[in-house]
Every structure is written in C-alpha cells, then in structure tokens.
User: What shape does this take?
Amino acid sequence: MGLTDEEKVNELSKVLLEVGSLLMSSGANSSRIRITISRIAGAFGYDVDLLITHRALMMTIYDEETDFFFSRLKRTSPHGVNFRMVSGISRMSWRIVQEKWEIDQVKNELERLKSLSHYPRILVLAMVSAAGAGFCRVFGGVYLELLVTFVATFIGLYVRQEAVKKAFNPYLAIFFAAFVSSMIAGLALKMKIGPNPEYAFATSVLYLIPGIPLINSLSDLLDGNIMNGIVRGLNGLMISFAIALGMLGAVLIYGI
Amino acid sequence: MQEWLHIVDRWFWLGMGAIGFAVLFNVPKRTLLTIFLLGAFGGTLKFVVIGAGGGIILGSFFGAVLVGFASIVAAHQRHTPPFVLAIPAVIPMVPGAFAYRAMLGVIHLTEKINHDTFLKLLEETVDNGLKAFFVLAALSLGVSAPMLISRRESAKNLVVRIKRDELKSK
Assistant: This one.
C-alpha cells in the first residue's frame, strides 16, 4: 500500500461518513444509510462494514485482496428532517456508480447539496397550518374550527422554530409549541367557538407528531436493526410525552 | 351528490395534510404534486376500508400499501427514492391523536383518583396506546410491502430489471 492509496482511503472514508451522518440527520432509516454507503464505497473499489447508531457512525473500510483496512468514527448531529438532502444523496450515489466520479466531484456535490435552500419560512408556516386545518376537516370540523386550528398551528410552529433557534432542548421546544397551540385552541374551546371546538383542540398539536422517528423505528425493527429501532421508538415516545405535557398544561389552566 | 362532495372535500384536505408535512420535511419541489396525490388517495382508501367495516388498523394498512406501491412507480418519474414520496404521504395517517391521548392517560393515571375512574382511564389508555402501536406497525409494513415482496434492496434495481426484460421481449 503506497502513501497515495492511504491518503485516498482517508479521503474516501471522510466523505463516506459525511454522507452517512447527513443521511442520519436528514431522517433516513438505517438500511438506507448502509446501502448508500456500501454503494458509493463499491464504486471506488472498497468494501465497508458499518456500525450505525443514533448519534455516531463507525466504519471500517477494507480491501479484501490486500488485507488493508481503515477505521473511522464520526458523530452525527441532529439537524432536522431534510428530504431534499436524502433525495440528492440518493441520486448522487447512482451517478457515482454510473459516471465513475472522482472523490473531489463527490465532495463538491455534497457542498452543493448542503447549500440548497429550504422553503421560505412563511410558506412552511402556512402549509403546515393548512395541513393542521386539513386534519381538523378530516376529523369533521367546520370552517370556523379549521381557522382556529390554522392559527394555533401557525403560532405553535413559529414558537417551536424560535425555540430551536435559541438552542433549547428539542423536547422542551416541542413542549412549548404544544403548550402554546393548545392554549390557543383551548381558548376557542372555552369560549365555545363553533359547534365542535374539541376537534380543533385535538388537532391543534398534530403537526408535532413524531411521524418520522416512529415510522423509521418500525422500519428499522422490520429490517432487523433492533437497537436503532428501539432508540428511534423511544425518541418518538419522548416527543409524544412532550406534546402530552404541553396539552396537559393548557387542560389544567383552563380546567377543561 | 352530497356524499360525493363530502368525499372530494376530504380527499382534498387529506392531500393538504400530506403536502404540509412534505414542505416541513423540505422535499424537492418536483415531488410536491405526487405527494399530494399519494396522500389524498391513500387517505381516501383508508376511510373507504374503515367505512366497509375494516377498522382503523386494516384501513391504515391498505392505505399505506397503496402509497407504497404508487411511490415505487412515481419514484422513477420524479427521480427520488420512493420513501421521500411515501413518508410525507402516510404521515397524515400516523396515529398522533392516539399516541398523545395514551400519554395524557398515563399522566392522568398518576393523579389521585378513585378506583372506578382509574379502571376506566386505564382501559382508555391501553386502548389508545395499542391502537397507536398497531396502526404504526401497519403503516410501516404497508409502505415497505413492495420492497419486502420483491426482496430487492433498491427500487432502482427493481424497475431497471423489469425494463430490461421488456426490451428483450420486444
């Protein structure tokens, strides 16, 4: 093994772990992370074995013929779901295989994906609030209750975004949001706005439901990644607990 | 007529629920319409099954299976992994209300309450918790059904393989 090969493996392992940690923080499940990393490593002529946990990735990259191996560990940061990243990395991994990319090209593509814009904040707030109103409609609410849910979701999500920005504990941020949303919807319930204000109260916190942790938990369990499945499931339970505590606050204050 | 209007109205709002979450999860713009359609039709199928007496667990399962299979087909047109389409589409079916009601129940159980209220609350809490778990299991099983049945690791191989076979037969 020449020095250049070692440097190459060093670079490759950095890139692979970067890909893995981006996927983990963007909300991909464990088998997708494993498959994507193996695919990219395979395109460069190496095999990898991975230990995937919620907060760190451990990887050994090896060459079967020369019995050469290289290990590296990387922490993953919880960043919030970003499917544009997952989609971009998936497309990239296929292009690496088909177009025989160099490592520098991969690095540039990762930088480009990281710089991709999110939807404007006001659009996110409006669309998520519309989704909340949609839940209320599906429950059987009328338009007045839809409006209550819309407002409660809008302000609640705004509070959550601000709390996350101020680097509060993520569960605490969800607690604040659930509390504010149910205080608003609870006010409508207290003042008896609309025929079924309890629909608005029940659906005002649904935008916080930990859908991705819970679905990923079950799909990890199904794939046999039991440890990751349990960790993600517990994370989902903690979030549900934070939502329930927030609602409980409003319930106690209004005496509903 | 009124019945149809109701179904279309619910179809629309189910779709809104799906794209609301899609925007929150920052999906690529080209997938938004697909996610709307997947969420709307998947959710509608869920309510059709529930209306036919299938219950919420079976309903969610069939809704998720529809979303799962449709997402594989759509993934090739939209150039994105199927799960980017499927997850936001099934999120409106996630039993959020059951989950937090179960949690709220657990909190209430610790309060000083009499025996009968305790038993009634325990019954509700267990019911909500179990429903939440099984609906969730049905959802993730339904979404991954196409991959489980085809026994492939990637949807890309799945359809590329089919296309090649088609070319050969022509």
